[in-house]
Amino acid sequence: MGYPTPPSYSQASLFEQKTPTNNSLQKTMTQNNTNSSTHSVRIIGGTNRGRKITVADLPGLRPTGDRLRETLFNWLTPYIEGAQVLDAYAGSGALAFEALSRGASHALLLDNSNIAANQLKRSAALLNVNAEIRCQDALHFFNSTTDSGSGFDIVFLDPPFGDSLLQGAVDALAQSTLLSAHALIYLEQARSQPTISAPANWNSHREKTLGEVSCQLYQLGTD
Q1: N or C: which end of the chain has fewer CB within 10 A?
Q2: How does DSSP assign 165-200, residue by residue?
Q3: Cα atoms in the Cβ-side hemisphere of radius 13 Å centred on 195
Q4: Domains contained in the chain, CATH given
Q5: Residue 91 to residue 156: CA distance in whole angstroms
């Protein structure tokens, strides 16, 4: 079951589950530099710099703010060119589309809201980027995918703040075969939430707290 094949100028695709739940509806923490009265977010760097993508009209859906995205992609600059990217709780797609704008070769975006996934498909077509969109639960994907080629080089884990999903996502991803040998894993959560326990072979690369948001960047298999 799925949506029709997108126009030839876009490589985006979309697959549906029959009964997705709407985790995206519950991402209610307002993040820095995101205006809740608007329904778009701009790409801040790369080939699509300045272009705006529409955010699905879902109560409480909040993209990662400009300041935090700028910090994150400054961290990722040495690694982004040609990277295979997974945005596991895509929402607006701001992180994945920013990565593609800055040189990533392909991105897989997951969201278990049909409404969000449909808008992600439209945004991918608008930006003409190499993105695949799936309406799928992230944990189901982590637990059921056994062949991911050489693995993802960059993974974004930014689940709805109110759902306490991040630790489970970290654990499931760590047990999967989805990561490349030196993958980078970005975690974002509310500052008030418990500190995540990362696997022993995930080495802390960067971390920052900005307002009420805390984020960490880990790298697999390095000292």
Answers
A1: C
A2: -HHHHHHHHHHSS-EEEEEEEEEEEETTSPPP---T
A3: 6
A4: 23-220 (3.40.50.150)
A5: 11
CB-based contact 97:120 (threshold 8 Å):
no
Q: Return the amino acid letter for 122.
A: R
Neighbours of 139 (CB within 10 A): 18
H-assigned helices in 86-190: 94-101, 114-127, 138-144, 166-175
Whether 40 contacts 55, CB under 8 Å = yes
Q: What confidence tier does 222 reach under pLDDT thresholds 50, 70, 90?
A: low
Q: What is the pLDDT of residues 167-201, one digit of tens each?
A: 999 999 999 999 999 999 999 999 999 899 999 99
Q: Is 220 helix (H, G, I), strand (E, B) or coil?
A: strand
Cα of 51 vs its chain's centroid, Å: 18
pLDDT tens, position by position, 70-111: 999 999 999 999 999 999 999 999 999 999 999 999 999 999
| Structure-token pair, residue 41 | 């977010």
Contact (CB, 8 A) for 138 and 185: no
Q: Cα torsion for 56, 126, 148, 178, to the nearest 10°?
A: -50
Q: How far apart are CA 2 and CA 83, in angstroms?
A: 27
Q: What whole-number distance in Å separates Cα of residue 42 and Cα of residue 118?
A: 18
CB contact at 8 A, 196 and 167:
yes
Beta strands in the chain (DSSP E): 14-15, 40-42, 52-54, 84-87, 106-110, 131-134, 152-157, 179-190, 202-210, 213-220
